[in-house]
Amino acid sequence: MSGGSVISEDPEYPEFIDPHNELEDTETQPRYRPDSLRSLCRATRFTEAEIKRIYRGFKAECPTGVVKEDTFKGIYARFFPQGANTSQYAHYVFNTLDQDRSGLLSFEDFVHGLSILSRGSLDEKLRWTFSLYDINGDGRITREEMTDIVNAVYDLMGKYTEPGIEDNAVTSKVDSIFQKMDRNNDGVVTLDEFLECCLNDEDITNSMAVFDSSI
């Protein structure tokens, strides 16, 4: 988990409880805060006012100052229709944001990911998406990894837009995408192959635009 420093009371941020001792007596534990506003502004595309607003919402949902995966899944589920199976896709998103695989998201982890998805360049968004599909983090996307993500997407939304979707439809979708991306037919998609394909595919480029927003 990135960022954070041990401090006493700070007027700019409410304090963070040490995430590794969140079940302990908070009176005796060191407390944490995010990196300074100035450094977060430099690292993201948010203004100081926006970061303060995002932080207030973050702390309201996560009073300990960090997010565990189960909490993240619960928050994520609120953005989708009741009954949608968001758990698996939320798991993959959490892992993508949790770059050091600590099992906890700090405010820095959260705001950096949000900055990329809402204000990042197309290249940055595509690189983030690649890391989402690259489930084991080895720098390559396998057909199995792509299948897992596509299945998670259909669980998330597809069954509402395409009721009764069959496994062979998922397989067909993956085969089509994979064939397009795997330029040298070696059975894996590298970052370079992924970027080249996406940047030359208008449909994919347009789909990335849905993340553009003002917070």
Characterise this structure:
With 215 residues, the chain is mainly alpha-helical. The protein has 10 helices and 7 strands. Helix 4 packs across helix 7 (143-161). The model is unreliable at 4-32 and 210-215 (pLDDT under 50).
Write the layout of secondary structure elements.
Blueprint: E1 5-7, E2 16-17, E3 31-33, H1 37-43, H2 48-61, E4 67-68, H3 69-77, H4 87-97, E5 104-105, H5 107-119, H6 122-133, E6 140-142, H7 143-161, H8 167-181, E7 188-190, H9 191-199, H10 202-208
Antiparallel strand pairs: 1-3, 2-3, 4-5, 6-7
Helix pairs in contact: 3-4, 4-6, 4-7, 6-9, 7-8
| Cα-atom radius of gyration | 19 Å
Amount of helix:
40-55%
What class would the helix/strand composition place it in?
mainly alpha
Euclidean distance between termini CA atoms = 24 Å
**Mean pLDDT over the residues:** 79
Please give the largest β-sheet: 3 strands, antiparallel
How large is the share of residues in beta strands?
5-15%
Q: Quick one: how many beta strands?
A: 7
- How do the SSEs run, as a string of H and E? EEEHHEHHEHHEHHEHH
Can you tell me the residue ranges where pLDDT is under 50 for at least 5 consecutive residues? 4-32, 210-215
General form: globular
Q: Number of helical segments? A: 10
Q: For the largest beta sheet, what order do the strands appear in spatially? A: 1-3-2
Provide a concise account of the structure shown:
Helices cover 54% and strands 8% of the residues.
Highlighted features:
two-stranded antiparallel sheet, single chain, disordered C terminus, 215 residues, mainly alpha, globular
